[in-house]
Amino acid sequence: MDAQVTQLFFSPLALALLGLCVGSFLNVVIHRLPIILERGWKRDSAEMLGVKIDEPAAITLSAPRSRCPSCGHAIAWHENIPVLSYLRLRGRCSACKARISARYPTVEILSALLFAAVGWHFGAQPLTLLWCGFAAALIALAGIDWDTTLLPDNLTLPLLWAGLVSAALGWTIPLAAAVWGTVAGYVSLWAVYWLFKLTTGKEGMGYGDFKLLAALGAWLGAPMILPIVLAASVLGAVVGIAMKLSDALREGRYVPFGPFLAGAGVVVMLAGPSRVLDWLGWT
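The chain above was modelled as a monomer; its predicted structure follows.
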């Protein structure tokens, strides 16, 4: 590929535009994937029990077309342009004027900013798209976990294997570092889980958190596991306390850990392992 073309297509601006489009799709993933999984679990359970259930209309990540949850208005293509359509519609459905959640443009803008930051950090090279994919997967996982306290294997396991395969191909970190990062990520939270459960009799986190941290270890290496967990724990505690004080946290609910693991993983990716170790004084 010509150097000028490479600089153009992998520039932060071009990647930001790509991020807007990817962010629009991530909104669909965050909303629909838990529904698809839940319906699949119910169907499988009904088959095992020999029970008949009413099957709702089929839904995938691509069909049916997105609709307003209030009135069922099918969203036209010109109403689905990232950020711009939200601004033009003033955050309301064009048919019934019901409010559109600010979540949608927020995810799109976040994706654009992260893609631009990845382009700035890794430079104009095709490998940058790999790290953009890593960031996109973390956004989707964070959004799903925040809504449902679920980190689906459909995303965590492909992310983990993508990290190991990328390392094996020499695209990211050495393969040994990726393997030990996977082990360290999973075992560390697994040990904390069982220590907490044996001490209190309660479950402090889910197995999805183990798999997510293992995936982060596959991409970033074992030395980054402790900084990620520390950063995620501090931020999670601050947000949880703030929500509790403001009554934003419903009784009996807890703040999911996945979004903070994902956020810490993004920070480590953009800062770079050497800089993170310098911050902690471990070099």
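The mean pLDDT is 90.
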